[in-house]
Structures are given as C-alpha cells and as structure tokens.
Design goal:
alpha+beta; single chain; 8-stranded antiparallel β-sheet; Serine Threonine Protein Phosphatase 5, Tetratricopeptide repeat
C-alpha cells in the first residue's frame, strides 16, 4: 500500500476528506514526513471532528488533555472523548466508562459523572526512609486502572534501554526487560489524569516528568543494580543535565501482584519492596544538594514465576517542557 505524500494529503485535506485531515493532522503533530506543526495538526483534526470523524475526536481528546498544540484543558478533552464515544469509537467508549466508573452506555451521562478532582487526588503517603527519601503509597491506582494501563501499553513493548555514558539510550545486558513509552498516539486522557495524580503525590508539576513508561518483566528478566540518576561523567550527559535537569526522583506503580520474586531491592539501605496491585513506590535519586545519591542504587529483581508489570515515571529537577 502506497503512503500518500505530504502534498497529496494536503490536496485531499483541502477538499475536505476526513481521512486525509486526520492523517495529515497526525503527521504534523509529531513531524512525521512533514513539518513539526502541532497547532496546525490540531486545527486539521478539528476540521475532521466537525465532519463527524470519531478518530479525530479521540485524538483531540489526547491533545487537549496533554496540552499538545493548544493549552491543556481536561474538560475539553472529556467533551472530545464523549463525541468519539457517541460516534462508535470502541476505545473511547471503554475509556469513558472507566473514567466514570460506570459500565453504562449513555455517553453523555457518563461524561457528566466524571469527577476530575477524585481522579487526581492521591492516597496517603507513608515515609519508609527519610534519607534517602523512600515513600510507599498504598492503593495509588485501582485494579481497573492497572488493567487498562497494561492493555494500553502491551502492543508497543520493545527492549528496554539504559543511559550508559551518552545522552541517548542504549541496549545493555544488565537490563533485559521490555517497555512501552506512552506518546501522543498511544496515550489517552486517563493516563494524563494518572500523571496528575502522581503530581499531586510528589508536588512536582507534570512539566518535570519524562515520558511515562510501562515496564514488563517475564521470568528471569531483570534490571540489574543501577542508579536512576544521570551520571555527569561525559560531556553529553553534563549537557543533558544542564539543559533538562537531573533525574531527581522515580515513581513506580505495581500494576499486578500475581508473580513470585520481582522485588525492587535497595541493597545499601537493606530494603526490598514488592507492592500489591496498585501500590506505588516513590524515591529520590539525588541528595539535598542535587547530586547523585548512591544510597538509592537499586535493582529490579527478576520474577521467578509469572509476569511483572510496572508503570514507571522519572521526574527531573527542572521542567522538561515549557
């Protein structure tokens, strides 16, 4: 199948072809075979949305929730999600039910039931260690949320990478698990609200967040002893830290608990953590001066049976985005 060129897509879009509007809009959002022009991409998606396109409405929901090509507006995102559900978008329908915590099919009623404040409020924090700072948040996420995150990220799983003396990630024998990065094309409104819940727990704005990732470990797969901080030992990493900040904290949410082994181990402070489904572990990677804290080196131990699923969020010391 031939992929239409950018000029052919522009011509089809000018004629009001909804599929061309959506395809071109998506390319402009990320600069795929086209200029990086997210605001123009959003405008094209809006034109397709006016023509009743369910995919356009669903993608506009993500753009509004994440502030892509426009100011962030969760209520506008939910309105878009409702339109996508009304037009038969199956994923939008399931997401709307999840957000409303209701299995009904009256999409307007479900939209009205969604309580954004409850979605972004975290449960109580329990401090395990003060130095280094290690915190447990029990029942951070619900079972349906955990299952949604697993299924949302499963199709994109690929070999996990590490930073090793360079600013770009590389494969390494010390890390054998797989991961998915949640980008604009596989993220959704719910994932954005989970990030806002993390923000509430950490008191760090989501602009400080790296890309949110789903981690998957099969039996025997591991992430050997390491620190999540960036080592300022090469010019590339020094520049990375100066430009986007140190990786100051890590937020891990256990999405399942039906496996053996698989603890997160901190050998220097003699601590191991294995959460129940929905529990979260938050720990600092730097000391109070902002330097790497080697007390926080840890390992993702391999499951001995069953699969382990985690949601991983690295948090920088300065904003990643404006």
């Amino acid at each position: 199948m031939t992929v239409p060129g950018i000029e052919a897509l522009r011509e089809q879009a000018r004629r009001g072809d909804s599929r061309a509007l959506v395809t071109l809009g998506k390319r402009l959002l990320v600069g795929e075979g086209a200029p990086l022009a997210p605001a123009e991409g959003v405008d094209l998606l809006r034109q397709a949305d006016v023509r009743g396109d369910a995919d356009a409405a669903a993608l506009l929901a993500v753009c509004a929730a994440w502030g892509v090509g426009q100011s962030r507006d969760v209520n506008a995102a939910l309105d878009c999600l409702e339109r996508a559900a009304q037009r038969g978008g199956a994923s939008a329908q399931r997401e709307l039910q999840l957000l409303a915590r209701d299995s009904g099919r009256d999409w307007s009623a479900l939209r009205r039931r969604i309580d954004v404040a409850s979605w972004t409020t975290a449960s109580a924090l329990r401090v395990v260690f003060d130095r280094p700072r290690v915190i447990v948040i029990e029942q951070f996420a619900t079972a349906p949320e955990c299952e949604w995150l697993i299924q949302r990220g499963r199709p994109g799983l690929a070999r996990a990478m590490v930073y090793r003396g360079a600013s770009t990630p590389q494969a390494a024998d010390t890390r054998t698990n797989t991961e998915t990065s949640f980008t604009i094309f596989n993220a959704d409104v719910m994932i954005n609200l989970i990030r806002e819940r993390m923000s509430s727990a950490t008191r760090a704005a989501t602009s400080f967040f790296e890309v949110t990732k789903l981690l998957h470990y099969e039996p025997g797969q591991q992430f050997a002893l390491h620190g999540d901080f960036l080592q300022p030992n090469t010019p590339e990493l020094v520049q990375e830290i100066q430009r986007r900040g140190q990786r100051a904290a890590t937020f891990l949410t256990y999405l399942n608990d039906d496996f053996e082994g698989g603890e997160t181990e901190f050998p220097r402070i003699s601590y191991r953590f294995k959460g129940k489904r929905g529990d979260a572990l938050l720990f600092s990677n730097t000391d109070r001066a902002g330097a790497p804290d080697y007390e926080t080196v840890h390992a993702g131990l391999p499951p001995t049976s069953g699969e382990k699923w985690l949601l991983s969020q690295w948090i920088r010391s300065r904003p990643m985005t404006p």
